[in-house]
Amino acid sequence: MRVAVPHSLPKAEVRRRLDDKQDSMTNLVPGGMAEIETSWASEDRMVLTIRAMGQEMTGNVDIEDEAVVFTIDLPFALSFVEPMISGAIEQKGRKLLA
């Protein structure tokens, strides 16, 4: 699953905001029942490990010039909730950058 959230910020500011709001990333998954671990693989890529609904998922947050791109490897067992999760990521991703 890939969700792009547009922005008009410098990359350094996007990194700062993502760093400052890492704790609120658990809200990216609907229901707030997720545990999310984050780390920086590079200056423009945050790595995510998400545990929710009895599943473990991995993903990345890539900082691009005009968008922050959330990519999550959604297991087949959860593919039915992809529209709900992608909508929540887009909405809450905008709040992370605000």
TrEMBL record:
Source taxon at top rank: Bacteria
Species annotation: Croceicoccus pelagius
Protein name in UniProt: Polyhydroxyalkanoic acid system protein
